[in-house]
Design a protein that fits this description.
single chain; alpha+beta; 189 residues; 60s Ribosomal Protein L30, Chain: A; two-stranded antiparallel ribbon; four-stranded mixed sheet; membrane; 14% strand
């Protein structure tokens, strides 16, 4: 009985020693990337590489955040204004929904730059009479003009011209060529 009792006691001592020697990982060991976890104040830190102090969003002031958001918005608006050709469906002068945000960016640019001016060139495909295509190109240019004016541009900044079917963007009698020719182009002057 004493022998069994001493084995049990030796087993308990061995388990105690093993439990005392074990260790757990600390939180400072990192995650294997150059981005740290969110700190206690809600900011995060991104490092630019060795020897760099990195950028911390937690230390930015409200004014700096607002200025950064404004710069990002201006860059997005500038990128949208690079789109200057707007396409129309067959026999309509209705502006497509996907063109509206880009046209709003153009309207805001014109509103913020009163000395800027733009010429709207309306076009049609080769189907229909010459007179009909001239009128359709004019209706398309006028639709874009109204949209720009409603969204902040001045009517004095805009000139409209219709070329009808006279200046096709694509040659041929395919639906693809027709689709490329049914358009309004914005030409800044």
């Amino acid at each position: 009985m004493i022998r069994t009792y001493s084995k049990f006691l030796a087993l308990l001592v061995a388990m105690g020693v093993m439990a005392g020697c074990s260790s757990t990982a600390t939180q400072d060991e990192g995650y294997g990337s150059d981005v740290s976890a969110v700190d206690q104040q809600g900011g995060s830190e991104v490092y630019g590489g060795e020897g760099s102090d990195g950028v911390t969003s937690g230390t930015m002031t409200d004014e700096e955040r607002a200025a950064q958001a404004e710069r990002a918005s201006q860059q997005e608006q500038a990128a949208m204004r690079k789109i200057t050709t707007f396409y129309f469906d067959f026999d309509t002068s209705e502006i497509k929904p996907e063109a509206r945000d880009v046209l709003i960016a153009h309207a805001q640019y014109l509103a913020n730059n009163p000395s800027a001016s733009v010429r709207l060139e309306g076009h049609g495909d080769e189907r229909g009479t010459k007179e009909y295509n001239l009128a359709l190109g004019e209706r398309r240019a006028m639709a874009v003009e109204r949209f720009l004016v409603v969204n902040g541009a001045s009517r004095d900044q805009i000139e409209t011209v219709s070329y009808g079917e006279e200046k096709p963007a694509a040659m041929g009698s395919s639906e693809s060529a027709y689709a490329q020719n049914r358009r309004v182009e914005l030409i800044y002057q």
